[in-house]
Design goal:
With 118 residues, the protein is of the alpha+beta class. It has 4 helices and 6 strands, in the order H-E-H-E-E-E-H-E-H-E.
Amino acid sequence: MADVRTTLQFLIMVDGPLTAAELLDLIRSRLPDAVPYRRDSVDVCGNLLEINPNEDADRRLAATDEDDYLYFRWRVELTPMDDTIDERHQIGLARELLRAIEGPQARATVCAAFEDRV
């Protein structure tokens, strides 16, 4: 049986000109309950949110490939830290983060076991 935390983890792939610090500031400004954790990470809604560069980032493929999100610049990784978190909570958080991130400077895609319900 899979660890519940593992099945509730999710990624948001983000593309755009934002630096990691700018992306984190954007998230923190739109989710005021996000508490700084360490560089490029926050504690938000019972999850550790970390921003990491995507090692496979490729501007050309992000613009042209059918699976463009695989080549987006940033991986926003969310890991539940609270045992009371359930899938419904994570779906709501994923929606809220998409609304916070997407805009004229960034596009985003959720990658999760529950992505079809976001």
